[in-house]
Amino acid sequence: MKDVLRLQYLSLTYLRKLFQYTESEEMKFTFFGLILRAVLVTEITTARLPLIIEEKAASSRDGALTALISVTEGHLPSCSYILFMDGSAYNYGAISKELSDFGKSEGVAVLDFSTNRTHLEYLISAARQLRLSLSCVTVFVLSDDPAFLLKFAETSLANRLLTGSSRLVVVGRLSNKDVDFLSSHWVFFMLETLVVVPSQYKDRERWEMYTVLPFSASSSHLINAATWSTAKGLVLSANMTLFPDKFSNFFGSSVNVTALPYKPYWTKDEYPDGRVTYSGADRLMLEAMAQALNFSIYVMPVASWDEVLQRVSDRTSMVASVVHMVLPQRLQRVDFTRTYEHGINIAFSMAKPVLEPQWQSLYYPLKSLVWLCVLVALVVTIICFILIIMGSMENHPKKTSLYGLVIVDIFGTLLGQTLNVKLPMIAPTRILLVSWLVFTFIVTNLYRSNLMAFLIAPRYPPRPESLEQMVKVAKRVTMPSYGAEFRDYLKNSEFESFRALGAMLEVGVSVTEGLTQALGGRQCHIDGTRYLEQQIAEHFTEANGDSRLYVGREGVLPGLNAWPIPHDAPYKENFDAVILAIIEGGLYNKWMKDMLDQARKEGRQRRREKIQQLLSEKKIVEEVSSDSGNDNEAKPLTIVHLQGPLILVVLGAAGGFIVFLLEVLLNYLSPKQGAGSRVQM
How many whole angstroms separate alpha carbon 436 and alpha carbon 439? Predict the structure, then answer.
């Protein structure tokens, strides 16, 4: 073990020398990251060797070390510690030694910026990479300089050093004015932060510990959480802890949110008197959250979906309370609450295929194999009857003409005709005739029934139901303005169908305009599944419930959906707990179902009112009024249904006319033998 520790110590010493003497900023960043990782791995797995980048002999003054250890003991979880120091007169070697020896410490890294503060940004970035590899990190900042503390707060916020669950302890000789100034910054204001400063009562052995409550019953946000002195030790204030939960109760404060209308998740109604009301499944969930956490809602005015996310990204809005899909591009700007909506998979909507006239309507009632069997049975039956006639009517003078009559009559039985030809009255004829008549009775009745069904409910052509089918058919694809992020994601995808969709995707088309254009054919509009269903039900549904648009069965881009919140928001756990309770209670699905049912009902009602208005003004034709009637009302057949029979009649008439012309022509060209015979007689 001693050899291992010695080897690790020599490795750290070598890395520290490389860090001190290299001139490349990039190499400094690399060496520093290696130092941090090596130190914490060493300290966790062995004897916790403290990292001291540069030894100093300055002694600890004003009890800062003792106060810091007192705060740590019993109030912080078992974590690795990262100390930031600005070169003030603190013996950070002693501090790291004490923290390393403390039983709950899993590793200590001490960073000193006394020589060069320009390295602060990339050192904090390296510290963040270290934090990501650890389960728990507590950050200590020791400085007497408010400017350094403010710079640290801004840099750590930009580089995401601190998470919502991280704890920050600031120790320094700061005045009350300095503490008030720092408490206004987002890091100190929102995160779990404790500021430890010396007492103002000329007591060198007393330290005050302040925390900031962004939402409280009192007017002051800066709260004295505890005091420490050599005589009494740590004394907590009444009903206080060092790190209270800041977001379990907002005390009726106003919370900024951003949202745009996105039915059925978020709707906005404006009235002539200036009132504005909101509704929708997400709005109802936000209201339930406001009631549970005791806050009021202020919807910030925004002009676009990009601004919705921008307000969250710059932390002027606490949450975008409309469902968003979690995309890699969006994760670079914001974080998300827990996922809760799995029915908003991005889908496409297209016009239903138009039923074109089809002459095959006479053929569809029976399968191809059935038609083949009927043809074989017809041929076999005709052959059998001809053989019977040939064997039993050898001396009949018109035996040859009977063959043609038998063929016509046997075929006619399939059309419901009777036999006109006189067949031999023998046993084989009776048996064959009875079996054929039974066969034709069954086949013709089944054909008539199926033919009626196919004429009333004709066979529609196939329609695209998946992304692969849609990209092969569609010539143009539209999406609202927020689709720019989706387009970038699709273009960079490894799947060919995604790249094809990204190449033809046009962004900036509203849902109403996109669905209207989709009615023209070979064009589709992409949006959330439930949003498309709601828009179709509200604006593109007839009074009888039919619509010319449909939503593809398979989604274009399935994924997780949640509310965007700022990076490392400390109130995420509180919001997630409320969302989980709502989802598990089934409330969200109930709200969504109610919104969709209401949209369908209102859409049908508006359509009926519009038709009644047109009827009253006598500006509508009769067939339109029939479409608005009851669903059970009979509808007349069109050329689409009867094209097959009409084509058959036309072909039959044309064939008969051609045969007639041929007979006339043959009769005209043949020798006139009738006159000569009469002369001879």
Answer: 5
Around 224, how many Cα atoms within 13 Å sit in the side-chain half-sphere?
13
Q: What angle do CA 357, 359, 360 make, to 5 degrees?
A: 115
Rounded to whole angstroms, the Cα distance separating 5 from 47 reads: 8
Question: Own/partner pairs for 414-420, CB < 8 Å, 24+ apart?
Answer: 414/374, 414/378, 414/440, 414/443, 414/444, 415/444, 416/444
Q: Which helix (H) or strand (E) holds 214?
A: none
Token pair for 194:
């404790």
* Cα–Cα distance, 666 to 652 (Å, whole number): 21
Reading phi first (left if > 0) and then psi (alpha if -120 to 50, else beta), residue 220 is in beta
State the average pLDDT for the chain: 75
Euclidean distance between CA atoms 562 and 335, whole angstroms: 9
> Are residues 316 and 485 in contact, defined by beta-carbon separation less than 8 angstroms?
no
**Pairwise CA distance, residues 195 & 587, whole Å:** 42
**pLDDT score recorded for residue 6:** 36
Sheet containing strand 295-300, edge to edge, reads: 295-300, 253-258, 319-320
DSSP 3-state of 350: strand
> CB of 262 within 8 A of CB of 246?
no
How many CA atoms, within 13 angstroms, populate the side-chain half-sphere of residue 223? 25
Q: Which of 367, 323, 365 is nearest to 345 (CA)?
A: 323
Q: What is the DSSP letter of 261?
A: -
Beta bridge partners of 84: 111, 141
Q: Give CA–CA dist 238/550, Å, rounded.
A: 63
For residue 357, cis peptide bond before it (omega within 30 degrees of 0): no
Residue with token string 């070169």: 87
Instruction: Identify the sign of the CA torsion 555, 560, 566, 571.
Output: positive
Strand partners, 449: none
335 membership: H or E segment, kind and range: strand 335-336
More confident position, 538 or 39: 538
What average pLDDT does the segment 447-469 reach? Answer: 78
The pLDDT assigned to 313 comes to: 94
How much is the pLDDT for 60? 40
- pLDDT recorded at residue 207: 81
Spatial CB neighbours of 321, under 8 Å, sequence gap ≥ 6: 257, 258, 259, 266, 282, 283, 285, 286, 563
Q: How far apart are CA 221 and CA 169, in angstroms?
A: 17
pLDDT on residue 38: 47
Which pLDDT score, from 0 to 100, does residue 628 have?
Answer: 44
Looking at residue 83, its pLDDT comes to 78
Question: What is the DSSP code (8-state) at residue 145?
Answer: -
pLDDT (tens digit per residue) in 123-175:
788 788 777 777 777 888 888 888 888 888 898 888 888 887 788 888 888 88
pLDDT-derived band at 352, boundaries 50, 70, 90: confident
Cα–Cα distance, 586 to 393 (Å, whole number): 85
Is 224:208 a contact under the CB 8 Å cutoff?
yes
Among the listed ranges 53-62, 95-104, 209-218, 272-281, which one has the minimum average pLDDT value?
53-62
Per-residue model confidence as pLDDT tens digits over 185-199:
888 888 888 888 887
Q: Identify the CA nearest to 261 among candidates 518, 527, 531.
A: 531
What three-state secondary structure class fits 551?
A: strand
Alpha carbon distance 79, 100 (integer Å): 11
CA distances from 203 to 82, 199, 206 (A): 29, 6, 6
Which two structure tokens, joined as six digits, stand for 65?
């070390």
Residue 676 has pLDDT above 90, yes or no: no
From 137, 131, 133, 136, select the one nearest 160 (Cα to Cα).
131
Burial 83-107 (b: 16+ CB within 10 A, else e): bbbbbbebbbbbbbbbbbebeebbb
Would you say 222 and 179 are in contact if contact means Cβ atoms under 8 Å apart?
yes
CA-to-CA separations, 314 to 236, 338, 569, in angstroms, rounded: 35, 21, 12
